[in-house]
Amino acid sequence: MKTAQGIPLDYYLWLSAALFTIGVLGVLYRRNAIVIFMCIELMLNAVNLLLVAFSNYYSDASGQVFVFFIMAVAAAEVAVGLAILMLMYRNTKTTDINILNRLKW
Amino acid sequence: MEFTNNLFYFLSFVAVLSALMVVFSKNPVHSVLYLIITFFAIAGHYILLNAQFLAAVHVIVYAGAIMVLFLYVIMLLNLNQETEPHKSTLIKLAAAISAGLLLVVFVGSIRGSEQMMVQPQQVEVGSVKDMGRVLFKEFLLPFEISSVLLLVAMIGAVMLGKNEEEGKNAS
Known about the structure:
A: elongated, B: mainly alpha, Four Helix Bundle (Hemerythrin (Met), subunit A), 7 helices
């Protein structure tokens, strides 16, 4: 149950679970759309960390390639998401997500 | 061994603490800065896990590109003051309880999984050489498709960001 560096694999499981939960908490807790985006990044990173830990544990480089692709998808997601946010701000003059609860303005 | 363990504890502490600060700081600019600290801590974890290439890419892509984009949008929209209206206490309580329940589910599922794993023999992976071999042999098609994905994202961002009112005035 140890990685190549001698740290037990459970520790990484606990750390990733904690980071993912903090990300979920942020998405539920905050109203600012930009902060919600950042919390989504936090959740993606928790999963990335776990993938790298398991890739190290099983000595399989495929896990790290997956992290590589997740990074590419995250970059694309952030670019499009922030463009949508800019558009929303231009129309409503706010980034509060409660204004979008009817999906129109 | 002792040093590695202490490094792990330190990096985990920094990551979790600054992740909490991302959620609870009022100013969005402070959130961005705390998130950058979290990303550096996670990059430290990658180095600890012998994934040097990924650590470098992580710092360049996340701390270098994505967070600059966030900071740029916050500055552009002039959101760097505490303008967020308060959610009601009920909603905040509900959010905290839901996240706590999720944590309980994680704890329950992780605790039972310890006996299932077998220790395989360990070889070094994660260097640029190993990553390149896997990426360009087994994952060549996904690699090419991800370039199309980035192109589509770029076109989409430009299309969305274009000022429509200006276009109407010009025509």
